[in-house]
Design brief:
The chain is an alpha/beta fold. The chain contains 5 helices and 5 strands; from the N terminus they run βαβαβαβαβα. Strands 2-1-3-4-5 form a 5-stranded parallel sheet, with helices on both faces.
């Protein structure tokens, strides 16, 4: 029987409570098509990756994070751009999930990326730096639509809710394509 349900981990590149990552993180599950369930996997509490902590008893937050990513059927990254790259918190999560050697929780999980910035480039640099890491980690990343949300502040009303308009429409398009991508990738033998 064909199953089009996909449980996806949503990773927010910033944990600021009033930030745009958090606002998008609240809006996206409501925009998701039927069959796509988005659940935030927190990365804010992850100790900085250091190989000396990779013992028989690694930090609990690492174990929790790895278990949550391992259980996810797909990955949605929602990230701001910091200095033309991804925030350190997100890079750290990628490093924690890829270790120890031979135990990566990322491999073969379909993914999509939405990047943003208050400026005009919409997080282009962050999006592409993240794609580079994901290619190395054997994560098949959705190619279209590419989502670079420029002028992100204008996408929200004064209460922090996502406005109707082009950003909302692009995010809906992304989520539909991501859902189809995740289901299609699951059907390809590994």
């Amino acid at each position: 029987m064909y199953n089009n349900v996909c449980d996806a981990a949503m990773l927010l590149g910033s944990s600021r409570q009033t930030g745009f990552s958090r606002r998008l993180g609240r809006a996206l599950p409501e925009l998701a098509p039927g069959g796509l369930r988005l659940r935030e996997v927190s990365i804010a509490d992850l100790p900085l990756y250091h190989e000396d902590l990779e013992t028989d008893s690694p930090p609990r937050a690492w174990v929790r994070f790895r278990d949550e990513i391992r259980a996810a059927g797909a990955l949605l990254f929602v990230t701001p751009e910091y200095n033309r790259s991804v925030p350190a918190m997100l890079k750290n999560a990628i490093d924690v999930g890829s270790s120890p050697d031979g135990s990566s929780v990322w491999a073969r999980k379909p993914a999509a990326i939405a990047s943003f910035s208050p400026g005009r480039l919409g997080g282009f640099g962050a999006n592409h730096h993240l794609r580079q890491s994901l290619v190395f980690l054997d994560v098949p990343v959705l190619q279209q639509p590419e989502v670079y949300l420029a002028g992100i502040g204008d996408a929200f009303d004064s209460g922090g809710a996502l406005r109707a308009g082009p950003v909302r429409e692009l995010l809906c398009e992304l989520l539909r394509a991501f859902h189809a991508w995740a289901v299609r990738c699951r059907e390809v033998p590994s």
